[in-house]
Design goal:
146 residues; 6-stranded mixed beta sheet; Nuclear Transport Factor 2, Chain: A; 6 strands
């Protein structure tokens, strides 16, 4: 049952915190000293750090939607793959809003202890995101501008 509980907690972070912007759920799901990592090389600690990271991304993509596609759990770890969707409506990574949609492959890896997430790694394809908003050129399979 522990694996199912861990999967549920990881899914809730994706859906409730990131997708719905329910930042208060972070307090219930993350340990106070949770070590977190997000793609912008942002390191954070605990629920407050996650809330800050989520707020930053949701400001740029206020309609952010997370669609969980698969989860795998083993022992105290869970991998949650998802699609991150939204429209680039405000400044992101120094880039003015383009009003273009994104649909980016993403994943969160979590480690759990005593019913809380104690380690959290989020990853999404930043290159793909920046291509979709038109900030960098789309590359061909050979690595050349398409």
């Amino acid at each position: 049952m522990v694996g199912a509980d861990n999967k549920s907690a990881a899914r809730r972070v994706c859906q409730e915190v990131w997708s719905e912007g329910r930042l208060d759920a972070a307090d219930e799901l993350l340990a106070a000293d949770c070590a977190g990592h997000t793609p912008e090389h942002r390191e954070f600690t605990g629920p407050a750090g996650l809330r800050e990271a989520v707020t930053e991304l949701r400001e740029a993509f206020p309609d952010l939607h997370i669609e969980v596609t698969i989860q795998v759990a083993e022992d105290d770890r869970v991998v949650t793959e998802f699609q991150m969707k939204g429209v680039h409506s405000k400044k992101y990574l120094g880039t003015r809003p383009t009003k273009k949609p994104i649909d980016v492959a993403s994943a969160v890896m979590t480690r759990h202890s005593d019913g809380k997430i104690v380690e959290y790694w989020a990853e999404w394809d930043r290159r793909q995101l920046l291509e979709q908003v038109g900030v960098v050129p789309t590359l061909s399979p050979q690595g050349k501008p398409a």
